[in-house]
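haha ok so turns out i had the wrong file open the whole time. this is the CORRECT one, sorry everyone. sequence first:
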Amino acid sequence: MDSSRFKEILLPLGTMLYKVAYRIVGDKDIAKDMVQDAYMSMWNKREYLENLDNVESFAVKVVKNKCVDYLRTRHISNGLDDGAQETESCIDETDVYEHHERLDRVMQMMNCLPERQKRILLLRSVQDLSMEEIGQVTGLTEVNVRTLLSRARKRLREMCEMEEFK
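then structure:
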């Protein structure tokens, strides 16, 4: 993948990737750093990106992994005594891991949605676009956007409920 193709595919994802990073690390500057690190990692693996079906999903996963790595590293070097550090580290890493696993599961469920529903859900939930903006991006009316978003959310709730009973 050359630089122009890389920019064409991955740079538009920057806002979404930032929001994912910010939700995990809770700090604007660190989230920006995590996205930058993710872009560097993806650039280093650009040949691999050509063969992916869903580059967006891969990019989100790279950002999440960077954030989790950052939180682990920060936690290890925070200067707590060994006992407190070990206990707090286990709690924090467990929380981060569980959050990471939930995000992965939701992304898997979203991949089961029809493509238009998935796209609208991502535009609304991750990129935080208004119904009007989503309509402009997708070429749909606001009524259609609301209907598809409602159906996508309903289907995700159903999948979550089904998973709870497994």
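The chain has nine helices and no strands.
again sry for the mixup
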